[in-house]
Amino acid sequence: ALNGFVLVVTSEGLIFYSSHTIQDYLGFHQTDVMHQSVFELIHTEDQEEFRRNLHWALNPPHAPEDESSAEGGKSLGSPAVTYKPDQLPPEKSSFLERSFVCRFRCLLDNSSGFLALNLQGRLKFLHGQNKRSEDGSALPPQLALFAISTPLQPPSILQIRTKNMIFRTKHKLDFTPLACDAKGKIVLGYTEAELRMRGTGYQFVHAADMLYCAENHVRMMKTGESGLTVFRLLTKENRWKWVQANARLVYKNGKPEYIVVTQRPLVDEEGGEHLRKRSMHLPFTFATGEALLYQSAYPLSGFPDPFQSKGKTSKSKKTSRSHGGRSQKNGVDPSSLLGAVMRQDKAVY
């Protein structure tokens, strides 16, 4: 019911808990962020401000040797500084209330890649941590930030309306599907197990959209984001569903770890309009259905010249299948883009 999500961050900067609604605002799944460093999500210019607000006296120690400032835990990368009860205000004190703004990484359609959030809450004791000091004795409960995070800019009516249709998928770096949220399962009809057993995600992409998707995939590997990509996905009922997607790389320890794709279903008219715009920028047209599946300066092994000439959709698709066996003998890699098309069920077309 909140226009935001709940966040609990320990004094050391670890996300102890996040409500699942973090996915609606930042695009990260709840399980992706829990027990990770909050500073991996925060804009570098705002990290100091966040660190300051985690400290009970708004004065985190800069050096581990600084014994004079007692902290409710430890700053990231420094030894634990046990708080001194006589220096700490009582838990109900307004001194422990927090309200500040930080920019968080956002995987959704956000131009800068960051979303400004207002964090409002207070520092409270986090029980049940069972942490021990270096000598083995149990540490008392430490302070943690319990906050509600809401976007600084309220969502527009359009965003609220379309939020209910947006679904998200998680992929390996080669786009092999790993996970799909509940809305995605409803839109596409597959279970997560069915998505995973089909190989790379390109099996679900319409042949006429593959090269376009692959080009944006390459761009995402270079820049971290694909930009808006409109293409057709194969549903379980063997129908094509237009989606508008934005893919982002998610990094861990400075290395790309997986891809998160935010997708919004489109009606066929919207998809057709995007297709017409796309065909204007390409040397061949996919808008009328008279198309070459692959434009290549080099003849493809096993394909006679007639395949290179334009024909009706059904004809060119059938040609590609009828020569499929011969091509594979001539060394077409079954895991390649072309091999993936050949293995698709022709009833789909």
TrEMBL record:
Coiled coil: none annotated. Residues 58-89, 305-349 are annotated as: Disordered. GO terms for molecular function: nuclear receptor activity; transcription cis-regulatory region binding. PROSITE patterns: PAS (PS50112). It is found in: Nucleus. Residues 1-61 form the PAS domain. GO terms for cellular component: aryl hydrocarbon receptor complex; nucleus. The keyword Transcription regulation applies. Residues 312-326 have a biased composition (Basic residues). Keywords: Activator, DNA-binding, Nucleus, Transcription, Transcription regulation. One of its GO terms (biological process) is xenobiotic metabolic process. PANTHER family: ARYL HYDROCARBON RECEPTOR, ARYL HYDROCARBON RECEPTOR 1 BETA. This is AHR protein. It comes from Grus americana.
